[in-house]
Design goal:
The structure is a homodimer of 269-residue chains. Chain A is built from 9 helices and 6 strands, in the order E-E-H-E-H-E-H-H-E-H-E-H-H-H-H. With 269 residues, chain A is mainly alpha-helical. The N and C termini of chain A lie far apart (41 Å).
C-alpha cells in the first residue's frame, strides 16, 4: 500500500530517528513516503515507525517505499518492473542498514473470485523469491486485511469477493513462519470507499507494529489506539525536527525569508 | 537538479504523452517529478518535455528522475548509492523505452575554488562510466549553468566561486561530442537566492530543449520564451487529461464525491 490518506486530515509525524529511502540514501521521513502517483498521501508505515521508535529510543528506523497503488499480484510477478524495483531498493538500503521487517498490504485488485482463488499460490511464490533475493528467509513479514468497506463504494461490484483475499492472506500467515496477519476491523475509508482514510491508516500502522512486536496476529482493534496516537502526536519536537519543518515551509514558499530567519533564531536560542 | 520551484506559482503542465518513471513503470507526469525531499517542486524537465512534445505530436516521452538536491560530485561517485540508483532507474526504463537524452544540472555544492578545480575531471569520469553502464556512448547530454544569483543569497559566501563550475561545464561541453551547454542568463531564484524559481525553470527547460534539438550550445535567453510557454500553457486538454486532474483533485480531498461524479459526466458527455 502506497497510502491515499488525505495529508492534512491528521497531525503529521516528524521524528529525526525515522528515515525514508530516497535515491538510495536515508532522509528524514515526511509524508507522502510513497510517490507512486500524484495523489499519494498518508500510509500505514509512518505510525508503524513512530510506534516502533517509542519502544526503541536512541535507535533509528528506515522505511523503504516500494508500493504502487492499484496493482494486482500479476503486476508483482517475479522479474517484473515492480518486483525488481523493490528488490533493488531494499538492496540499496541494505548497504547502510539491516532489513528487519517487511510490511505488505495489497489485494484490492485481486478481489474477483477468479483472481482471489489463485492469490495464496501467487503470493507464496512472490514472497519466496523476494526473501531469497534479499537473503532474508526469516525476516518478519506483516500482512494486513483489505477494507470491509470495499463493496459499498465507487466500483463496489468490482470488490464483491474481497473477503476471499482476506481469507487467503490469513491462511498464508497461519501456515508460514515469520508472518503475521493484521485485522482491518473498524477501519474506515475516504469518500470513495476504496482507500483507507488517514486516521484509519494511523491505527493500522499501530496494529502492524503490535503484530511485529509480538510476532502474533492482531485480530481486533487495539484497546488503546487513540491513546497511543495521542502520545505520538504529543511527542516534543527536537530542534533538528523544528528546523526540518521550518526548512520545508520556507522552501515551499509558505513563509518568507524574514520569517524563516526569525523562526530559526528562536530555535537556536 | 530535482527542482525547488514553488508548485502553484506557475501553470501546471499536464500532457498524457509525457510520462515519468514510478517504481519502474511509466505514469502520466505531474510535478513534482522528483521526490528527493519534502520540498521538491517544479524542475526543468517538465517544460523540456512539453517543448519536445510540441515538435513530436503522436509520440511519447518519458522522464527518469534521478536527481538529489544539494549533492556534490563527490556524492555522485561511481558505485555510490546515487550513481547506482540512477543507473538502475535508467535500466528499468530501458526495458520499455529507448534512452534518447541525458539532462544534467548540478554543481552549486562544488562551487568552492578547491572543488571547482577538480570538477571537469570528476565529471568526465562519472559521465564516461554512466554512458558505459547504460550502453549509451552517443546519447545527447545537455548540461546547464548554475545561477548567477548564488553569491547574493543565503550562504552566498559559500558560492563565491560558482563561475568556476560554469567554466568547467562549458569547457566539458566544448571538448566532448554529444554534449551541449545551456546558459542560465537572466534566470532568477526563489527568495533564498539559491534555487531557481519556477518561472525560470520553465524557461530553462525550453533552453535545454533547444540545445537538444539543434545539438548546439544555447548561450543566451531564447527570443521567444514567453510565447513558447504561452503555447504550452494554452494547449487544450484531452478528456483523459481532464480525468487525470479530476482524479487527483478527488483523491486528494479537494473535491467531494458528488462534485467528482458531476465533473466526470461533463467530461464524458
Amino acid at each position: 500500500m502506497a497510502g491515499r490518506g488525505i495529508p492534512d486530515s491528521v497531525p503529521p509525524i516528524i521524528n529525526e530517528s525515522i528515515k525514508m529511502l530516497r535515491n538510495g540514501r536515508w532522509q528524514i521521513m515526511a509524508e507522502p513516503i510513497h510517490n507512486d502517483r500524484p495523489m499519494a498521501g498518508v500510509g500505514l508505515a509512518s505510525s508503524f515507525a513512530a510506534s516502533w521508535h517509542a519502544d526503541h529510543i536512541g535507535e533509528e528506523i528506515g522505511l523503504i517505499p516500494c508500493a504502487d497503488g492499484g496493482t494486482s499480484l500479476n503486476d508483482w510477478q517475479v522479474g517484473g518492473a515492480l518486483f525488481d524495483h523493490a528488490i533493488f531498493q531494499a538492496k540499496l538500503a541494505q548497504r547502510s542498514s539491516q532489513l528487519t521487517g517487511i510490511l505488505w498490504h495489497q489485494g484490492e485488485n485481486d478481489s474477483s473470485a477468479e483472481l482471489a482463488a489463485k492469490y495464496g499460490e501467487k503470493f507464496d511464490s512472490i514472497v519466496n523469491e523476494l526473501r531469497k533475493q534479499l537473503g532474508a528467509p526469516e525476516v518478519p513479514m506483516i500482512i494486513g486485511a483489505i477494507g470491509d468497506f470495499l463493496p459499498y463504494g465507487l466500483f463496489g461490484a468490482h470488490f464483491n469477493d474481497y473477503h476471499l483475499v482476506n481469507s487467503a492472506l490469513q491462511k498464508y500467515a497461519a501456515s508460514h513462519n515469520n508472518c503475521n496477519f493484521v485485522s482491518a476491523k473498524g477501519l474506515t475509508a475516504n469518500e470513495d470507499q476504496i482507500h483507507f482514510n488517514a486516521s484509519s491508516l494511523r491505527k493500522f500502522g499501530l496494529r502492524y507494529y503490535q503484530a511485529f512486536l509480538n510476532a502474533a496476529d492482531v485480530t481486533e482493534a487495539l484497546p488503546d489506539e487513540d491513546e497511543l496516537l495521542g502520545k505520538i502526536y504529543g511527542r516534543e519536537l527536537s530542534p533538528n525536527e523544528r528546523k526540518f519543518i521550518l526548512d520545508i515551509n520556507f522552501a515551499s514558499g509558505k513563509i518568507s525569508l524574514s520569517e524563516f530567519q526569525h523562526q530559526l533564531k528562536l530555535i537556536d536560542k
